[in-house]
Amino acid sequence: MIITGVGEVHRPATLDEALSYMADHPGARPIAGGTDLLVALRARGSGGGAVGGGSAATLVDISGLAELRGIWCERGRLVVGAGTRFTELAESTVVAGAASVLARAAAQVGSVQIRNRATLGGNIVNASPAADSLPALAVHGAVCVLQSARGGERRLGIGGLVTGAYATAARGDELLVKVEIEDCSAWRSSYIKLARRQAMAISRLAVAVLMQFEGHSVQDLRLAVGAAFPVPGRVGAAEEVLRGAAYSRDGARVAGETAADEMVRVSGVRWSTRYKQPVLAALVERAIRQCAAEEGIDSWPE
Asked: For the chain, which domains are there?
């Protein structure tokens, strides 16, 4: 397939070569799976709109760099190479144990074909508000590690890297090389994605929840929502409803309503608000109850 507007594709053999090339070629765009970028470039070349910004005259093909692939543990944290594909995440027993919300989110990305190509790093830096990985990474306390030939290494949280819809704080010569994720194997978890169909669909809403219990009390709660806020992050006001309190279904309901109210407060009233506000409240309540059911203090489905 010929994509109008791509003048050169450079295929570095090593990460150092890729970083050096990007330092010497401002505006070069890295490409790995290409499931977002190629669609955007093709649309731009045919005169349509493009997702995530302008066309790229030069591409840096980093799909073959082994240094960007892999899943391992380091200093008590799970580490995922930015070039790791979603199929690998969804099928990894290590990810399922330490970062179960991310594993569940990965299994719901696109289709089998897309998961076989799309990478975690690409999903992050494309910075779509509906990106499946972002709410999961937010509750898992993920840290994104970027590298450049001249600036060395930078570490940013998800909320620090993604600054808006299709916008990041990554510099033009930087590559996202890996993501460090807190080990949450002792937490109960839930991830719910709402889309127009079961596969090959972008999230209309996504809810990621991690909970720790002590008896019937909620020791801690982490909640993040996708496709509802301009930047990824946790919904602190909703978390505080149950944190440190005795678990109850009423508490789960109030936490859901609080999350929905926060969406309206932060994002404003839009054409979709009349639909999204009550649905988000219900999804958050459901996700919290699923965690409690996993703990054995609630039942879902009833």
From this structure: 6-45+57-61 (3.30.43.10), 71-182 (3.30.465.10), 188-295 (3.30.390.50)
